[in-house]
Fold this protein.
Amino acid sequence: MKTYLYNDSIGSCELLDSMGSDLDIVNAARVSFNVEHVEISTKDEKLINYLYKNKHTSPFEHCVLKFRCVVPLFVARQHMRHRTWSYNEVSRRYTSEELEFYTPETFRPQHKSNRQASEDTDTNPIIRSTPGTNLTWTTKASDSVLKHTRKSVRLFNTLLESGVCREQARMVLPQNMYCKYIATTNLHNCLKFIHLRNKKDSQWEIRVLAQAMEATIKDLFPTTWKAHCAVMEGRTK
């Protein structure tokens, strides 16, 4: 299951493997009574709702999801703030191949009151040369980002060709460079990530990553997902 995120056929989230099901959650909870079910029942669904509502999290931790994520570096670093996950990423110390970059055609304005957020509108402002300098140019923001990216890659390659090691040359690569990594976590912590990163005040570029993971959980753990939504929406009694 692979989802493209940014309309450029590069940024993506792909489920590589998973372990467990709603039934495994039930059996993890019922092992206290030395009971095991072979198929999930209505009573089991009620048990999952009870467990999730009352924050009995350990049964959900027996289910695991492993993703391959390809996102801009600044998004990857936000993801990796979630330290309950395990991560391994492509290292530019070892390879200089397949450099790809996130270069959006439009941008979002800064939010008027929230210093860490943006407005939900598109803009592509004209950038002009700074008065008093020898530079004279007028270009769109998207074109400027593309030119800056290409210039950074040329410098990176020039440093390598001049004998500079990869582990130092990589410092000139911009934060819009795509980062590929494997991310693994249990179901409980994946749901926590989705809850935090799919909020309206979360950055859009990581929000769509959370939405891709949300679609995976809906498919693999439908009863747990319903219980999660009920708690988040305050529909539990």
Residues 53 and 231 are 6 Å apart (CA to CA). The chain has two domains: 2-91+177-232, 106-175. DSSP finds eight helices and seven strands in the chain. The longest helix spans residues 141-161.
